[in-house]
Specification:
This protein is mainly beta. The chain has a single domain (24-359), classed as Porin (Beta Barrel). The chain has 3 helices and 17 strands. The protein has a 16-stranded antiparallel beta barrel. Residues 10-322 form the Porin domain. It comes from Paraburkholderia lycopersici. It is a multi-pass membrane protein. It is found in: Cell outer membrane.
Length: 360
């Protein structure tokens, strides 16, 4: 009998340990077909991965330490489902890779992460937007992660939470080079959600764009390589009335010392409405309005982007979506550019996209 009791104990102990830990494999594949009426001078029909949400897979895990404490980690890979290539500059876990501790007083994480604007304003400003404006300079569309980051996120107090982060640059003798700072708050309770945030990225061309690709961005690409910093102030709110959600927000993005020692500034305003026609059908309409002021050049380009979106939910994991986007350039700007598409050769561009998303 003693042998049987010992054997039963040995079987039960691993089960207890496993019950205190968790490991989850998750992911999403977003694939579709796009028509662009003018991409560098001609019409294009092509497949696009991650047009709405970046295709990804990841591992998230935790270990219970007792007393309300636990270790947490996340490894998240981004990829192109069309070609199978790695995303995020070819990084294995380029979307996120961090480890940290959750406590009753908040969480502290360290590694490659998204800045605080993503958690404080991303859900308000990016939901239903379909394609983020001007290559997501304000990062409200969740496109850019930052290396060497330590982040603190508070618990929720009556719907209110706050977060702050600092990313070390790692340059010997230059503590601020390629560093980043961010802080913000978010409120979500009942029908109202709102957020405010400030993020500052030193040497943004290297930190977020890996020192490449600026020439493809007609809206702010010419000013990016020389920018000393990218400072982003953002505010937004959403309110739900039955099946309808109204969203609005504003971001102020400044590329400092980017053109002849002066700044290039971009103010983007968002107005959006989401309506659940049925439990499995959502319609959204969005207007993104960007007004720029380019330092000593005296230029004041204006960019407009209007989105219509239909999202048909097949199941908890799969949906079909379609959008129509119309973008314009004015105020001296001669080329329109929708999201991360190739720029138009004219001040107007149209994108029609049909896609499918599956989550696992």
């Amino acid at each position: 009998m003693k042998k049987y009791r010992i054997g039963a104990l040995m079987i039960c102990v691993p089960g207890v340990v496993m019950a205190q830990s968790s490991l989850t494999l998750y992911g999403e594949i977003d694939e579709g077909i796009s028509y662009i009426n003018n991409a560098g001078g001609g019409a294009v029909v092509k497949m696009r991965s991650g047009a709405w949400d970046g295709s990804r897979w990841g591992l998230i895990g935790s270990e219970d330490l007792g007393g309300g404490y636990r270790t947490i980690f996340r490894l998240e890979n981004g990829f192109d489902a069309t070609s199978g290539a790695l995303g995020n500059g070819g990084r294995e876990f380029g979307r996120q890779s961090y480890v940290g501790i959750e406590t009753p007083y908040g969480s502290i994480t360290a590694g490659r992460q998204y800045d605080t604007i993503v958690e404080n304003l991303g859900p308000i400003l990016s939901n239903g937007r379909a394609s983020s404006p001007i290559y997501d300079l304000d990062n409200a569309g969740n496109d850019w992660a930052t290396n060497n980051m330590i982040k603190y996120k508070s618990p929720k107090y009556w719907g209110l939470s706050f977060s702050t982060m600092y990313a070390f640059g790692g340059a010997a003798g230059h503590l601020s080079t390629s560093s980043a700072f961010g802080a913000g708050m978010n409120y979500a309770r009942g029908p109202l959600s709102a957020g405010i945030n400030y993020t500052s990225i030193r040497d943004p061309y290297q930190v977020w764009w890996n020192g490449t690709g600026a020439s493809n961005i007609v809206t702010f690409g010419p000013y990016l390589p020389n920018a000393r910093a990218l400072n982003i102030s953002a505010v937004g709110a959403a309110y739900q009335i039955g099946a309808f959600v109204a969203r609005t927000g504003m971001t102020h993005s400044v590329l400092t010392d980017s053109i002849n020692g002066s700044n290039a500034q971009f103010n983007t305003y968002l107005i959006q409405g989401d309506y659940m026609v049925r439990p499995n059908l959502r319609l959204a309409a969005t207007a993104d309005i960007t007004n720029a002021n380019v330092g000593t050049l005296g230029k004041h380009p204006k960019y407009r982007q209007y989105n219509l979106l239909a999202d048909y939910i097949l199941s908890k994991r799969t949906d079909l979506y379609a959008w129509l986007i119309y973008g314009t350039a004015a105020g001296g700007a001669t080329q329109a550019q929708i999201g991360q598409l190739a720029a138009s050769s004219t001040p107007r561009q149209v994108n029609v996209h049909v896609g499918i998303r599956h989550r696992f």
